[in-house]
Design a protein that fits this description.
single chain, alpha/beta, 4-stranded antiparallel β-sheet, 13 strands, binds pyridoxal-5'-phosphate, PyrdxlP-dep_Trfase_major, transferase, pyridoxal phosphate binding
Length: about 425
């Protein structure tokens, strides 16, 4: 008789895992104050005191900058908007090249397109999954304007990329959406490059529903970020700014309600990360005893805040494909559809390597004639095989899950470990 749930055996667990709900009375208290004031936003898109937003927005920005030890923090309505602002603020020109990662949320690779620049993909590291410094250096040309590094799954990018950027005089935009509170040495992730961005969307370590924060120590860049956030073209004349490059503004402003929630969330960040850290230690202790699994590497001199946990699967040891293994683990636990309210994500790989998406495959982004690629006299290759590490991770070796989330208790973690272990112990059923 078969033991594995996939083959009709009994499941390890038939109960849902606890939901991840970091919002509580602290957030509600601040939101109530905003309601009482009836001012849900105080931004004005002209040169005026209110160009900088209302009291909650300004308090959040001050608290964020102090917390992360950086000169300027600028709130926006999403990390996607934050990336767009960053690409604009560094003065990106059409047909410039920006080096991006293929293994990240799509916006970190599409942001260059907004300013007519060309995303150039470099491969990721086999063990840390962030941009690979050697491949980044190979991709640099006389047109490279910036590198968008991503602290993927919760750990800071390779410091060698800082040296490369310095040597070639190009900017680093650090996408820290998945790594708030991670550290390299005594500096926080997000503050390692020229501009850092954080996300406050519902899925992240801390959230305000939607939201993003941009940080920088550069006064001029900070000024340009604030202008792009809030109708630059209508502001600069009265403000007295002369530099017109990329001063087409947007409305990327955060509301007072989101800002108040984010303020309470920021205070909880250390505690929420500590819970993830405790969970990961316990999980890794159990999972690392399974011979076909290898726990992810934490970069030297860095801490990891485990937005997700990327385990490497060895199919030679297991004698089956990763996808079969995951299918069997999933069958031992409760099936999920809605990620936040019903359960927790586990799957093979992370996102499909971004260059394989229809937009890059067809080079159709704005209009029908291939802009911005058509604005360049160079050819760009997005074919399968350009980043072998990411393709191998995605299709063969990476198992990615979120069972480290705060709210998971010892019993819940024991069930996860038991599900993996049961599949390993009965792997002959799958061979
Ligand atoms: C979530 C995420 C984003 C986008 O965040 P939004 O606030 O939803 O726009 C960008 N980059 C990475 C790596 C992310 O994980």
């Amino acid at each position: 008789m078969s033991k594995l749930a996939l083959n009709g055996g009994e499941k390890i667990r038939t109960k849902k895992f606890p939901p991840y709900l970091p919002i509580g009375k602290e957030e509600f208290g601040l939101v109530k104050e905003v309601f009482k004031s009836a001012i849900f936003s105080r931004f004005l898109g002209c040169w005026h005191d209110d160009f900088f937003g209302g009291p909650q927005v300004q308090a959040l920005e001050k608290e964020w900058a102090d917390f992360f030890g950086v000169k300027h923090a600028i709130s926006v309505n999403s990390a996607t908007s934050a990336l767009y602002c960053a690409v604009g603020a560094i003065g990106t020109e059409p047909a410039d090249e920006i080096i991006v990662s293929p293994y990240t949320m799509s916006a970190s690779a599409t942001a260059p397109l907004i300013y007519g620049a060309i995303p150039v993909f470099a491969d990721v590291e086999k063990d840390c999954y962030c941009l690979d410094a050697k491949d980044v250096e190979k991709k640099i040309t006389d047109r490279t304007r910036a590198i968008i590094v991503v602290d993927i799954m919760g750990q800071p990018y390779d410091p060698k990329i800082d040296e490369i950027a310095k040597k070639h005089n190009i900017k680093i935009i650090e996408d820290c959406a998945q790594a708030p509170y991670a550290k390299r040495g005594n500096k926080f992730a997000g503050t390692l490059g020229d501009i850092g961005i954080y996300s406050l969307n519902y899925h992240k370590h801390i959230h305000s529903g939607e939201g993003g924060i941009i940080v920088t120590n550069d006064d001029e860049i900070a000024n340009r970020l604030r202008l792009i956030r809030n109708h630059a073209e209508a502001v600069i004349e009265a403000k007295g700014d002369k530099n017109l490059i990329n001063m087409v503004g947007f409305n990327y402003r955060m509301t007072e309600i989101e800002a108040s929630i984010a303020r309470a969330q920021l205070k909880k960040l250390p505690k929420l990360i500590a819970q993830r850290d405790k969970n990961i230690k316990y999980l890794e202790e159990g999972l690392s005893k399974i011979p076909c699994l290898k726990m992810p590497k934490v970069r030297e001199n860095c801490t990891h805040v485990y937005y997700q946990h990327g385990i490497l699967f060895d199919s030679d040891v297991a004698g089956i494909h990763r996808d079969k293994f995951i299918e069997a683990v999933k069958a031992e636990l409760m099936p999920i559809k809605l990620r936040e309210t019903e359960g927790i994500k586990i799957g093979g790989g992370y996102v499909k390597p971004l260059y394989l998406s229809p937009m890059f495959q067809n080079k159709i982004a704005f209009g029908s004639k291939g802009y911005p690629w058509s604005a360049s006299d160079r050819e760009y290759d997005y074919s399968k095989g350009i980043c072998p590490n990411v393709e191998r991770l995605h299709y063969e070796t990476l198992i990615n899950h979120e069972y480290i989330r705060p709210g998971m208790k010892k019993k819940d973690l024991d069930d996860v470990i038991a599900a993996f272990r049961k599949v390993w112990e009965n792997i002959d059923e799958l061979r």
